[in-house]
């Protein structure tokens, strides 16, 4: 008789430590930005582990990586589990890697005991979730659901000047053992384990979050253009200084947006100055604005506020302003039936949980448009993420993987759920 599959926590912890050496930063985090050498190395390592266990490895034209353990009925849409392996430039070792490696551990646990599942189980590592090197984020999952523009993205330049098409081609080439697949295929369900990236679970002392949905995100790129001039000789009334306009607009937005609504988030995370010389009034200042809110109409009104403040500042400072939207991710809800499956898995394992809405976006939000989807969160220390200090306890890693295994088993055996 086949014994019940079990998570090998030691193996999983070792794997997480091992992957954290790929693109390791001196402060204990990782820099494995999308399609970089580090990202390619991590994908290679995962594919090698997969081949060693006899799993099939596939990739698609946007370099989403799939590792498949065949079910009794290969024609039935697989249960998909996984996350991403790319990171922020000063990212933590768990954001993405935890969910991808926990999913691979589930596949190995099934294989260890030779358990048969009705449906195939596939691990996925989505391409460019973070969007920090190449914008937008979630390219892989966006393309997977037919909402991406792979051809249009080819000439996108990364923050390091690299062309996406070249980096993508090199990434695909680095995995010759992976069979190419068309972009997008039917899946019966998708479940992603992730660190919470916020303080809610830790504060509540609860090890598992049942994620019911994700708040919305918009990314804007604001560019103020003025006139380069001499820093020492140009009096105030002659200056067309885009920096003065930018800082005034940003300061005003910081004063009005978040203080007025505790659910709103507004972040200016990147800024570039041209020509960037100490004694030249800049000709152009460009910066990003990341806005988040659980309600779409509020996101729209924040965007309108940004537009109005930037235009008012541009007029006042006699410069031009141009605003482009690079990413627009509507808030979304996950599938209640899958959330129930996870809840039941927790109950069987005697693990307490609470429901929460994700403040971060995830590939799961895109996949939820085409397949029943939900997420499992585990706490992270002090709620810190997108930071090299990101930390998750071994106990919580193990619990998250156990809940994922139990969930995947139910989904791979149970009836097919209704697509959204
Ligand atoms: C994901 O990385 C996010 O920024 O929410
Ligand atoms: Mn992530
Ligand atoms: Mn992230």
Question: What's the shape?
Answer: elongated
Low-confidence stretches: none
- Approximately what portion of the residues adopt beta-strand conformation? 15-25%
Major beta-sheet overview: 10 strands, mixed
Annotation field: number of helices: 12
CATH topology heading of the largest domain: Aminopeptidase
- Separation, N- and C-terminal Cα atoms: 37 Å
Number of domains as seen in the coordinates: 2
| The CATH H-level homologous superfamily of the largest domain | Zn peptidases
Instruction: State Rg.
Output: 23 Å
Order of helices and strands: HHEEEHEHHHEEHEEEHEEEEHEEHEHEH
Q: Estimate percent helicity.
A: 25-40%
CATH level-1 class of the largest domain: Alpha Beta
Query: How many strands in all?
Result: 17
CATH architecture descriptor name of the largest domain:
3-Layer(aba) Sandwich
Q: Which ligands appear in the coordinates?
A: glyoxylic acid, manganese (II) ion
| Mean pLDDT over the residues | 97
Q: Structural class of the helix and strand makeup?
A: alpha/beta
Describe this structure in words.
There is one protein chain. The chain has 420 residues and is of the alpha/beta class. It has two domains: 9-214 and 331-413, 3-Layer(aba) Sandwich (Aminopeptidase), CATH 3.40.630; 216-329, Alpha-Beta Plaits, CATH 3.30.70.360. It contains twelve helices and 17 strands. The chain has helices spanning 9-19, 37-52, 97-113, 139-144, 150-153, 164-173, 200-204, 242-260, 296-316, 336-349, 363-367, 394-413; strands at 56-59, 65-69, 79-84, 121-126, 179-180, 189-195, 208-214, 216-225, 229-230, 265-267, 271-274, 280-281, 284-293, 320-329, 332-333, 353-358, 373-378. Helix 1 runs antiparallel to helix 3. The radius of gyration is 23 Å and the shape is elongated. The mean pLDDT is 97. It binds glyoxylic acid and manganese (II) ion (2 copies). One manganese (II) ion (MN) binds at residues 84, 95-96, 129, 194. The site of one manganese (II) ion has 5 residues, from loops.
């Amino acid at each position: 008789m086949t014994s019940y599959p079990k998570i090998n926590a030691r193996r999983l912890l070792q794997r997480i430590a091992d992957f954290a050496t790929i693109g390791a930063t001196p402060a204990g985090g990782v820099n494995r930005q999308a399609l970089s050498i580090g990202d390619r190395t991590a994908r290679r390592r995962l594919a090698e582990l997969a081949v060693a266990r006899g799993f099939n490895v596939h990739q698609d034209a946007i370099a989403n990586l799939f590792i498949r353990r065949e079910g009794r009925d290969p024609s039935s849409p697989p249960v998909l589990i996984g996350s991403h392996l790319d990171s922020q430039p000063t990212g933590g070792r768990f954001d993405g890697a935890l969910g991808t490696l926990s999913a691979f551990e589930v596949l190995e646990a099934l294989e260890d005991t030779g358990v048969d599942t009705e449906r195939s189980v596939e691990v996925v590592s989505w391409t460019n979730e973070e969007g920090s090197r190449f914008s937008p984020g979630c390219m892989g999952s966006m393309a997977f659901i037919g909402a991406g523009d792979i051809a249009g993205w080819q000439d996108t330049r990364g923050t390091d000047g690299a062309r996406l098409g070249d980096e993508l081609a090199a990434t695909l080439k680095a995995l010759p053992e992976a069979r190419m697949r068309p972009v997008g295929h039917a899946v019966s369900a998708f479940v992603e384990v992730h660190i919470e990236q916020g303080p809610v679970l830790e504060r509540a002392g609860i090890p598992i979050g049942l994620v019911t949905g994700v708040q919305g995100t918009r990314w804007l790129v604001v560019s103020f253009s003025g006139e380069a001039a001499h820093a020492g000789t140009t009096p105030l009334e002659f200056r067309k200084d885009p920096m003065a306009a930018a800082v005034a607009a940003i300061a005003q937005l910081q004063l009005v947006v978040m203080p007025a609504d505790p659910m709103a988030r507004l972040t200016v995370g990147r800024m570039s100055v041209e020509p960037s010389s100490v004694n030249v009034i800049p000709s152009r200042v460009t910066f990003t604005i990341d806005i988040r809110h659980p309600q779409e109409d509020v996101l729209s009104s924040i965007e309108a506020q940004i537009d109005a403040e930037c235009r008012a500042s541009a007029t006042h400072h006699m410069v031009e302003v141009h605003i482009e939207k690079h990413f627009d991710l509507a808030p979304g809800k996950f599938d209640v039936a899958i959330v129930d499956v996870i809840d039941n898995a927790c109950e069987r394992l005697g693990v307490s949980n609470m429901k929460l809405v994700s403040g971060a976006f995830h590939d799961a939000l895109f996949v939820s448009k085409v397949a029943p989807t939900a997420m499992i969160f585990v706490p992270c220390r002090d709620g810190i993420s997108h930071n090299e200090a990101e930390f998750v306890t071994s106990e919580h890693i193990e619990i998250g993987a156990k809940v994922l295994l139990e969930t995947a088993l139910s989904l791979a055996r149970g009836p097919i759920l209704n697509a959204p």
